[in-house]
Design goal:
This protein has six helices and two strands; from the N terminus they run βαααααβα. By secondary structure, it is mostly helical. The protein has a single domain, classed as Globins (Globin-like), CATH 1.10.490. A two-stranded parallel ribbon has the order 1-2. Helix 5 (79-96) packs antiparallel against helix 6. The longest helix has 25 residues, at 100-124. The radius of gyration is 14 Å and the shape is globular.
Length: 125
């Protein structure tokens, strides 16, 4: 196991995570059918997002919450979807990395999942 400390590490983490996500029975369809993400465009954004969070390099420019609201109108993004996203993230972290940034990546993902789940629920009300 290695530490999660470089852009290359983040790219490896994100790639392995998305390998799981896009085929997942619970949430994969959001990525493949609903959002129809182009991984060649999407993954570099995710690399930047997590690099900004974990390494403190301000390379991410975007608003992840805003992107999810239209998807939530097509198919409700519910708490169990965020729970599954988080479980896959944690699994990917634990399978590949160790150290302080792993704990930070998990904590930040937990906060993101909780906030996004809450805001998507409110938006559907």
């Amino acid at each position: 196991m290695k530490a999660l400390e470089t852009r290359t590490d983040i790219e490896e983490l994100v790639n392995k995570f998305y390998d799981k996500v896009v085929i997942d029975d619970t949430i994969g369809f959001f990525f493949t059918d609903i959002a129809q993400i182009d991984l060649k465009k999407h993954l570099p954004k995710m690399y930047n997002f997590w690099e900004s969070i974990l390494l403190g390099n301000p390379v991410y420019d975007g608003n992840p919450m805003r992107v999810h609201f239209p998807l939530n109108q097509v198919v409700a993004l519910e708490e169990h979807h965020f729970d599954r996203w988080l479980a896959l993230w944690q699994q990917t972290l634990e399978e590949n990395f160790e150290g302080e940034n792993v704990a930070t990546a998990l904590l930040r993902a937990q906060n993101i999942a909780r906030i996004m789940s809450y805001k998507m629920k409110i938006a559907r009300s």
